[in-house]
Amino acid sequence: MKTSFIEDVKAKLKEKGYKLTTQRRVIIDVILENQGNHLSPEEIYSKVKDKYPEIGLATVYRTLQLLEELNVIYKLNFNDGCNRYEINSGNDYHHHHHLICLNCGKVIEVKLDLLEDLEEKIEKEGDFKIVDHNVKFFGYCNECKK
Amino acid sequence: MKTSFIEDVKAKLKEKGYKLTTQRRVIIDVILENQGNHLSPEEIYSKVKDKYPEIGLATVYRTLQLLEELNVIYKLNFNDGCNRYEINSGNDYHHHHHLICLNCGKVIEVKLDLLEDLEEKIEKEGDFKIVDHNVKFFGYCNECKK
DNA sequence: TAGTAAATTGATATTCATTCCATTTTTATC
DNA sequence: GATAAAAATGGAATGAATATCAATTTACTA
């Protein structure tokens, strides 16, 4: 797998009959340049406007939906009133998890992945085919826990 | 611990200087009568109106916030456009998790709790004091996976 | 290369959950 | 029962997200 991220997205778009337009390209660039920042649609819109001022907000929303559909990004929810997005960097579903500070709202990423056992157990017992999971831990970061 | 749920809530309210008003009481009743249903504010509002037609939607929102603050209920998010609430039945934070069917949207509860190891590891490595967690598994229920 | 159908875009209108605000009602206290 | 404080109210405001629609762009075909 030596294909670049953009090439990969382009292929996925083509596969479903979509095109990689300039607008979509700029949106993807912004997301790429802000990995780990969990941007909201509005934030993406504002950054995209710097590079492509004619773009409309609707296009940003549409493109985010499209990219989510293609599993290029996925939606996060930190209960702050808007959706946030993150690149789905791995080519399967085992992404990282989030620590959310209850005091300052900071979001820290964790790369541990000890959930296989749990998934296996649930699949056996529960008669449920697991495809993805989403784990959030709430607590206090090292600055706020004092 | 032989106190009833309502008594417990009443005590918690009093502790923080809040009162158990009729409206709050009715809202709590509705939540109690719908355990396991993950009601949204609108759904709660509609059911509460049957018992107490004069109540306003804002009151429902306010009460839900209040009850969440007191750890009597907690907020869930199933990406269906609204928040949903669930009773916090255990007296500490180790509640159950949810299986969400990607096809029919059904939500199934799981009681497993194998996350202690993971939390311990994160606390050691990450310099983060964990207070709560939230785990969702996405996949297909036994009816939809065929 | 011209012409046509399909996809995409951007501005605007709309929807819907949630919050805000001024007013009214309820509760507790003396 | 009078009074002050707290809580609840409806309606309006807000703000994120979606839908609408005419205009533009793109891909394809003759």
Most extensive interface, chain pair and sizes? A-B, 34 and 35 residues
Gap between N and C termini of chain A, in Å?
45 Å
User: Pairing-aware structural class of the strands and helices of chain A?
Assistant: alpha+beta
The CATH architecture name of the largest domain in chain A reads Orthogonal Bundle
CATH uppermost class of the largest domain in chain A: Mainly Alpha
Assembly type of the chains comes to homodimer
Give the overall pLDDT of chain A as a whole number.
87
Strand content of chain A: 15-25%
The number of distinct structural domains of chain A comes to 2
Q: What percentage of residues of chain A falls in helices of 4 or more residues? A: 25-40%
The strand order across the widest sheet of chain A is 4-3-5
Radius of gyration of chain A: 17 Å
Order of secondary-structure elements of chain A: HHHHEEEEHE
Q: Which fold name fills CATH's third level, the topology of the largest domain in chain A?
A: Arc Repressor Mutant, subunit A
Shape of chain A: globular
Give the beta-strand count of chain A: 5
Number of helices of chain A: 5
The poorly predicted ranges of chain A are none
Structural description of this entry:
- The structure is a homodimer of 146-residue chains.
- In chain A, the strands form two sheets. Chain A has a three-stranded mixed sheet. In chain A, strands 1-2 form a two-stranded antiparallel sheet.
- The first copy, chain A, has helices at 5-15, 22-33, 41-51, 57-69, 116-126, and strands spanning 73-76, 84-87, 97-101, 107-110, 128-140.
- Chain A folds into two domains: 2-87, Winged helix-like DNA-binding domain superfamily/Winged helix DNA-binding domain (Arc Repressor Mutant, subunit A), CATH 1.10.10.10; 95-139, Dna Ligase, domain 1 (2-Layer Sandwich).
- The first copy, chain A, is 40% helix and 21% strand.
- The model of chain A has no long low-confidence stretch (mean pLDDT 87).
- In chain A, helix 2 packs across helix 3 and helix 3 (41-51) packs across helix 4 (57-69).
- By secondary structure, the first copy, chain A, is an alpha+beta fold.
- Chain A has five helices and five strands; from the N terminus they run ααααββββαβ.
- Chain A binds chain B through residues 75, 77, 79, 99, 101-102, 108, 110, 112, 114-115, 117-119, 121-122, 126-142, 145, and chain B through 75, 77, 79, 99, 101-102, 108, 110, 112, 114-115, 117-119, 121-122, 125-142, 145.
- Strand 5 (128-140) of chain A pairs antiparallel with strand 5 of chain B, so a sheet runs across the interface.
- The first copy, chain A, binds a DNA duplex (30 and 30 nucleotides) through residues 17-19, 21, 23-24, 40-42, 54-59, 61-62, 65, 81-83.
